[in-house]
Amino acid sequence: MAKMNRETVLTEALDLLDEVGLDAVSTRQLARRLGVEQPSLYYHFRNKKELLSAMSEAAMAPHATAPLPTSADDWRDWFLENTRSFRRTLLLRRDGARLHAGSHPGGTDLDRIAHKMAFLIAAGVPAKHARTAMLAAGRFTVGSVLEEQADAGPGDGGDRTAAAPPDLPPDVPPVDHESSFEAGLALILEGLEQRVRRAG
């Protein structure tokens, strides 16, 4: 195996996550996968919590490196696409939403958030409503993906449909996770648009 470094550890850790799920990820299994003794991992990560935090950050790379909004963008279209990008990224990894839940932005993430907020404010969205809408959309997305991935089979980032709950009548159609997400996202945007109109 190539020389072990932080990037190699993270790559293998995320592959392990996809194979066994978050509950089964352990430093012991990861060390075995890397062909090293468990204490060797602590050179790169002091403990499992630090490893999981780094895994969460790495897993979010597709969303964290997406193009930032520009003054030419329509803020409504951008708000929708930004939230969809977040959802797509969470779905890339098994238990992606669980891995991300409870994490906190830092470094360049904070700079990107500040840029996004400045974009919304410059587009006419009052700061307090922009903050609330971004937070609501983020939490709604994590919750939606948690449910979607709970319905998915092992090794699958997320199903697009799930069986109706057993306590509902048999003629109730399966849950379409993507359609449900889009409907909820549309409600958040509509609410934000109303707040913007009132503020104007």
Protein described:
- By secondary structure, the protein is mainly α.
- 62% of the residues lie in helices and 2% in strands.
- It has nine helices and two strands.
- The chain has helices spanning 6-20, 27-34, 48-59, 61-64, 75-91, 96-100, 108-122, 127-151, 177-199, and strands spanning 161-162, 175-176.
- A two-stranded antiparallel ribbon has the order 1-2.
Total count of strands:
2
Q: Separation of termini? A: 61 Å
- The radius of gyration computed from the alpha-carbon positions, rounded to a whole number of angstroms, is 19 Å
Q: What is the chain-wise order of helices and strands?
A: HHHHHHHHEEH
- Oligomeric state, counting identical vs distinct chains: single chain
Strand order of the largest sheet: 1-2
Largest β sheet strand count, sense and barrel closure: 2 strands, antiparallel
Q: Percent helix among the residues? A: 55-70%
- Average pLDDT rating: 90
Strand content: under 5%
Apparent shape: flat
What are the main properties of this structure?
2 strands, 9 helices, mainly alpha, 200 residues, Tet_transcr_reg_TetR, DNA-bd_HTH_TetR-type_CS
Protein topology:
Elements: H1 6-20, H2 27-34, H3 48-59, H4 61-64, H5 75-91, H6 96-100, H7 108-122, H8 127-151, E1 161-162, E2 175-176, H9 177-199
Antiparallel strand pairs: 1-2
Domain HTH tetR-type: 3-63
Protein name: TetR/AcrR family transcriptional regulator C-terminal domain-containing protein
Organism: Streptomyces hyderabadensis
